[in-house]
């Protein structure tokens, strides 16, 4: 058994609590947040500082605080002698992400990242197809993410919508899709991006929509994303066009095989699942990797390229905007 504590008891902190309670190789020791209800059945702390002074039992701290605090909270926990399981994204820029890993290496502790959709059977099935070269040459990958995040969503939590704490829709809404590209392919690089703000100009400090051009090994890739869909989430999926097959994986939790036509697999088994919450799988994996001292698909090193990809995309979008503004000034001089 490994002992877990949770830092940040908001929406996802509660999901981790249930995942730890459901796991037979994990114990919940304590929860840390500013204000906590009574009757949680575990020790509670109102600050990370007091927890780090008093706690002697915790092996892993789950960092479930806003994105912009992950770096500081992870480093403080590592320096306090705890392994960390960091909610996505690991950090909001590549320097911070690398610093977390460097502190962990110095302290001989582990960093895990909450990339739980890697446990979707559909995602694992496609990974096996790719590893076995069953799809032949991969020509093209298209990622579509068409969601709705309205003004009320941004009013609910003050960190949502801020550049420093949220970091933008690619980090907060769509990072799992980027993570799955990194899980399936060894080398995924953002090569261009452009962004637009259709319906959140006075709501968020960043744009709500855009596209990203990327490469995944030798394949070309394109991602289109928006949180400006009318009324409610519309769809999100990943399409692979390959020499020996066509695949479309979808739904918000990438748990559905929407289309598959494969040359080498005559009757593809139904790998879709109704399971949407893969956090219990992730908690089990983290505890197991620590007990056996095994490498893990959730090791922080595998989350670095996600941060780089999104950071690059955001920077491309910002520099494209400057060029556009300059072009506008020239054309209107
Ligand atoms: N893996 C996923 O599918 C998934 C889904 C949702 C959110 N997330 C990630 O989880 C993280 C949290 O998101 P959320 O939706 O739960 O946010 P939230 O606002 O509901 O919860 C954050 C909690 O952190 C607490 N907190 C903030 N600063 C703190 C501090 N210094 N010390 C102690 N507690 C502090 C807040 O009081 C709040 O309770 C984010 O990084 C988000 O991107 C991941």
Automatic annotation (TrEMBL):
Lineage: superkingdom: Bacteria
Cited Gene3D superfamilies: Dihydrodipicolinate Reductase, domain 2, NAD(P)-binding Rossmann-like Domain
One Pfam family in the UniProt entry: GFO_IDH_MocA
Domain GFO/IDH/MocA-like oxidoreductase span(s) in chain numbering: 123-247
Matching InterPro entries: Gfo/Idh/MocA-like_OxRdtase_N, Gfo/Idh/MocA_Oxidoreductase, GFO_IDH_MocA-like_dom, NAD(P)-bd_dom_sf
Annotated GO MF terms: nucleotide binding
Start and end residues of each Gfo/Idh/MocA-like oxidoreductase N-terminal domain: 3-112
PANTHER family (UniProt xref): D-GLUCOSIDE 3-DEHYDROGENASE (PTHR43249:SF1), UDP-N-ACETYL-2-AMINO-2-DEOXY-D-GLUCURONATE OXIDASE (PTHR43249)
Entry protein name: Gfo/Idh/MocA family oxidoreductase
The organism of origin for this protein: Faecalibacter rhinopitheci
């Amino acid at each position: 058994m490994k002992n877990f504590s949770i830092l940040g008891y908001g929406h996802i902190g509660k999901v981790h609590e249930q995942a730890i309670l459901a796991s037979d190789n994990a114990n919940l020791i304590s929860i840390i947040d500013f204000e906590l209800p009574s009757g949680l059945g575990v020790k509670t702390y109102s600050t990370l500082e007091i927890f780090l002074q008093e706690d002697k039992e915790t092996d892993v701290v789950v960092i479930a605080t806003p994105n912009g605090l992950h770096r500081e909270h992870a480093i403080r926990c590592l320096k306090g002698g705890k392994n960390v399981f960091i909610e996505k994204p690991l950090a909001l820029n590549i320097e911070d992400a690398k610093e977390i890993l460097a502190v962990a290496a110095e302290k001989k502790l582990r960093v895990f990242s909450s990339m739980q959709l890697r446990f979707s059977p559909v995602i694992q099935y496609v990974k096996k197809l790719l590893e076995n070269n069953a799809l032949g040459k991969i020509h093209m990958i298209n990622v579509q993410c068409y969601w709705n995040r309205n003004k009320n969503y941004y009013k609910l939590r003050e960190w949502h919508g801020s550049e420093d704490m949220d970091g933008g829709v690619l980090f907060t809404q769509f990072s799992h899709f980027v993570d799955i590209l990194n899980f399936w392919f060894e080398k995924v690089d953002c090569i261009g991006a452009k962004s637009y703000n259709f319906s959140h100009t006075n709501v968020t400090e960043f744009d709500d929509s855009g596209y990203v051009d990327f490469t995944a090994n030798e394949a070309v890739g394109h991602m289109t994303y928006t949180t400006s869909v009318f009324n409610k989430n519309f769809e999100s999926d990943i399409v692979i066009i390959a020499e020996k097959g066509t695949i479309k994986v979808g739904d918000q939790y990438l748990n559905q095989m929407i289309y598959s036509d494969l040359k080498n697999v005559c009757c593809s088994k139904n790998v879709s699942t109704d399971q949407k919450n893969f956090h219990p799988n992730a908690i089990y994996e983290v505890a197991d990797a620590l007990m056996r001292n095994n490498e893990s698909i959730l090791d922080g090193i595998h989350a670095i390229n996600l941060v780089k990809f999104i950071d690059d995309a955001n920077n491309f979008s910002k520099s494209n905007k400057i060029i556009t503004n300059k072009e506008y000034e020239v054309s209107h001089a």
